[in-house]
Specification:
- The structure holds two protein chains of two kinds.
- Chain A has no helices and eleven strands.
- By secondary structure, chain A is an all-beta fold.
- The N and C termini of chain A lie far apart (37 Å).
- Helices cover 0% and strands 51% of the residues of chain B.
- Chain B is mainly beta.
- Classes of the chains: A mainly beta, B mainly beta.
- Chain A binds chain B through residues 1-2, 30-31, 33, 35, 40-45, 48, 50, 88, 90, 92, 94, 98-107, and chain B through 4, 31, 33, 35, 40-45, 48, 50-51, 56, 58-59, 90, 92, 97-106.
Chain lengths: 114, 112
């Protein structure tokens, strides 16, 4: 079963608006990461937040992490048409020894309309 | 510096045929992963490797084998392809368990 689940599955907004996506997970983690995937392309790393951090910023991106609720949110401010993509959260956890697994959710498809 | 390169990018197989997907990274990363991506399913981990000569099973390993004979290469094999293995396959690598993944552009496989 997948560790992370994004919500909503799809989000459509107008250019200039903010977009918020949520991710919930089931077990304890080392860190949580957000990735972006343009149609037909590979995934690109956006931001990583460690389990002892609560909030992190990178440009127009803001990520929060609530380990008590096992949830994270990604906020994209002042969205642009070029932000149209699928966004995935991934959780990193130790599965024993040097074995680390990064498991992904099913993603949120964001459409930003010009 | 090419990053993570996957070959081939596209392939069509008939049921029962075999093939190997090659993932090569030039960043000296220890960790390499193979995922498959299907519509509505996100990315699911097939197999992974934490260093040269090591491999481990992920969430959906059945029907696949892997080898990591050289640190820079991670091979994914299908011994007897089935239509259920039609998917887009992504390879990824990262240097430490606490860092970001670097992805290849994907290999689209169709099994008829």
């Amino acid at each position: 079963s997948q560790q992370g689940e994004e919500d909503p599955q799809a989000l459509s907004i107008q250019e200039g608006e903010n977009a918020t996506m949520n991710c919930s997970y089931k077990t304890s983690i080392n860190n949580l990461q957000w990735y972006r995937q343009n149609s037909g392309r590979g995934l690109v790393h956006l931001i990583l937040i460690r389990s002892n951090e609560r909030e992190k910023h990178s440009g127009r991106l803001r990520v929060t992490l609530d380990t008590s609720k096992k949830s994270s949110s990604l906020l994209i401010t002042a969205s642009r048409a070029a932000d149209t993509a699928s966004y995935f959260c991934a959780t990193s956890r130790n599965s024993g020894g040097s074995n680390y697994k990064l498991t992904f959710g099913k993603g949120t498809l964001l459409t930003v309309n010009p | 510096n090419a990053g993570v390169t996957q070959t081939p990018k596209f392939r069509v197989l008939k049921t029962g045929q075999s093939m190997t997907l090659l993932c090569a990274q030039d960043m000296n990363h220890e960790y390499m992963y193979w995922y498959r991506q299907d519509p509505g399913m996100g990315l699911r981990l097939i197999h992974y490797s934490v260093g040269e000569g090591t491999t481990a099973k992920g969430e959906v390993p059945d029907g696949y084998n892997v080898s990591r004979l050289k640190k820079q290469n991670f091979l994914l094999g299908l011994e007897s392809a089935a239509p259920s293995q039609t998917s887009v396959y992504f390879c990824a690598s990262f240097p430490t368990p606490y860092g970001e993944l670097f992805f290849g552009e994907g290999s689209r496989l169709t099994v008829l």
